[in-house]
Design goal:
This protein has four helices and seven strands, in the order E-H-H-E-E-E-H-E-H-E-E. The protein is an alpha+beta fold. Strand 4, helix 3 and strand 5 form a beta-alpha-beta unit. The longest helix has 18 residues. It is globular. The relative contact order is 0.15. The model has no long low-confidence stretch (mean pLDDT about 95).
Length: about 150
């Protein structure tokens, strides 16, 4: 597995296409969530991904503080269907937290998790903040992790 954490401009067309395709496969097709994935934030973000045989296996978008939330924000978190059940998702979460803490130290981290993943993110140090809300037809929950 090859891990990369890249700015948008560093991705290149082929890698960007592969990541956007996987995001559409998971969020739009698999989860049947119809929304505009290209929301204008990608160029401002870091893109954390795991690759095997030139195919993305896991991905998270790291949004700088002040863009989507006051704190840095982890979003678009996914594991390719073929890589699920391998522990890769937990490695992705661990690396996403590390990357945010390295890039934006002392600020904590926010994410907007699908509500059924609350326990998953709690294992990585996040705590629920506020009530469940609807985002694109899926119950979500804001979760924060305080600065280390």
């Amino acid at each position: 597995m090859i891990w990369c954490c890249e700015a948008f401009a560093e991705l290149g067309v082929a890698r960007l296409y592969a990541l956007l395709r996987l995001r559409a496969e998971v969020f739009v097709v698999e989860q049947r969530c119809f929304y505009v994935d290209a929301d204008g934030l990608d160029p401002q973000c870091l893109h954390l991904s795991a690759w095997q045989n030139d195919a993305p296996q896991a991905y998270a978008r790291l949004v700088p503080p002040g863009v989507k939330a006051e704190r840095p924000c982890i979003g678009r978190v996914l594991t390719a269907p073929s890589a699920r059940g391998t522990g890769l998702g937990h490695e992705l979460a661990r690396r996403a937290v590390q990357a945010c803490e390295a890039q934006w130290p002392g600020q904590g981290i926010t994410l907007y998790a699908q509500a059924h993943l609350r326990g998953y993110y709690e294992r990585h140090g996040f705590q629920a903040v506020g009530d469940v809300f609807d985002e694109d037809g899926i119950p979500h929950l804001r979760m924060d992790k305080d600065a280390a």
